[in-house]
Amino acid sequence: MSRPPVNDYGFSTQVGAPGARLINPDGSFNVVRRGLAFSESFSIYHSLINMPWKAFYAVVFCAYFCVNSLFSLLYLALGISHLEGTSGTTAWQHFADAFFFSSQTLTTVGYGHVHPAGFWTSALAAFESMCGLLAFAIATGLLFARFSRPQAKIVHSDSALIAPYRDGRGFMLRIANARKHPLIEVEVQVGLSWIPHGENKRHFHELPLERHKINFFALTWTIVHPIDERSPLASMTPAQLVDVDGEFFVWIKAYDESFNQTVYARFSYKPGEVVWGARFVRAFSHEANGITYVDLHRLSQYEEAILPPATSVGKPSSG
Q1: Residue 197 per-residue DSSP state
Q2: Which residues, in sequence order, are CB contacts of 238 under 8 Å at separation 6+?
Q3: CA angle 192, 236, 273 (to 5 degrees)
Q4: Around Cβ 230, how many Cβ atoms within 10 Å?
Q5: Residue 129 is inside which H or E element, if any?
Q6: Consecutive H or E run containing 161
Q7: CA gap 270, 238 in Å, rounded
Q8: Which of 138, 120, 175, 126 is closest to 153 using CA atoms?
Q9: How many whole angstroms separate alpha carbon 253 and alpha carbon 251?
Q10: Three-state SS at 116
Q11: What is the DSSP letter of 65?
Q12: Contact in structure between 281 and 222 (CB atoms under 8 Å)
């Protein structure tokens, strides 16, 4: 593994923490930026757009509850007597009356059972109505942005394999489209990063693939790097891959017909996620009704296989 690096893919050749990933399992980069003020480095919009759906709903619910609670306390501070139509007698009941009146005002529902009396209470209700209109307009925009944002849901095998390939060996991984809408013109690039012994510099090498592009992504796709005499994996062993802190990068680009836009996916494999001497089991089947079924539960399943000696190299691929 003494080949010079082709490029650094944007990660820099400077050595990082031993064993640390450059790309996290979720596809994010293992990079934290420092030196910026919190207001400059944090974007509420991008955070709300990119966070998981459960977290988004939790944030919306908490914001709704906190805003109504704040206005409820303001109404109580002005005096519960200025909210005509309330029926509570205890402090908790007064707060509940103010809270429900606040929620009706914030959402501009306005049932009318409770209504403000007095200048300041009416002014506060008018201000809350304006805040509600703005808040729900923002929430609607965020929902639309989240639904309309094109995202690829390309799932990949939990492990990459060093498997028999033709007369030699191949580095293999498998991907599938987890959504029903089609992806076309799918391209993939696989790279390897390692730190040679005696060097304080990370090397990068793009791995040639049997096929780097397919026109239609209808089934699973087993991506293969033939391990020939030009491959940095030609004489590599599992222990050596660990010693040089190897990491395999995978970049995927595809065209989504539903959004008419290009979508991307990326992930990586560390040495502990590479299985030597195995092959993937078939993940799709053809039924009598003429339909082909893809079983994504079998995407990561493999079986043991005997590897040819490392000195044997595969024939050049024609794909």
Answers
A1: T
A2: 271, 274, 276
A3: 60
A4: 11
A5: helix 119-148
A6: strand 160-165
A7: 11
A8: 175
A9: 7
A10: strand
A11: H
A12: no
Residue 26 burial by Cβ neighbours in a 10 Å radius (0-12, 13-18, 19+): exposed
CB contact at 8 A, 167 and 308? yes
Write the pLDDT tens digit of every residue in 114-153.
889 999 999 999 999 999 999 999 999 999 988 888 777 8
Q: How far is CA 176 from the centre of its chain?
A: 15
Token pair in block for residue 314:
């595969």
pTM score, whole prediction? 0.73
Length of the chain: 319
Helix (H, G, I), strand (E, B) or coil at 22: coil
pLDDT band at residue 225, thresholds of 50, 70 and 90?
Answer: very high
Structure tokens at 194: 């390692």
Q: What would you report as the CA-atom Rg of the chain, rounded to the nearest whole angstrom?
A: 29
Angle between helices 53-78 and 91-106 (to 10 degrees): 120
SS3 (DSSP) at 4: coil
The residues, any chain, with a CB within 8 Å of residue 191's CB and separated by 6 or more, are: 9, 204, 205, 206, 207, 248, 249, 251
Residue 252, classified by CB atoms within 10 Å of its CB into exposed (0-12), middle (13-18) or buried (19+), is buried
- Over residues 22-54, the pLDDT tens digits come to 888 777 777 777 777 766 667 888 888 888 899
> How far apart, in Å, are the Cα atoms of 102 and each of 31, 92, 110, 134, 309?
43, 15, 9, 15, 74
Rounded to the nearest angstrom, the gap between the alpha carbon of residue 107 and the centroid of all alpha carbons in its chain is 33
d(C-alpha 87, C-alpha 107), whole Å: 22
Task: Name residue 168's amino acid.
Answer: G
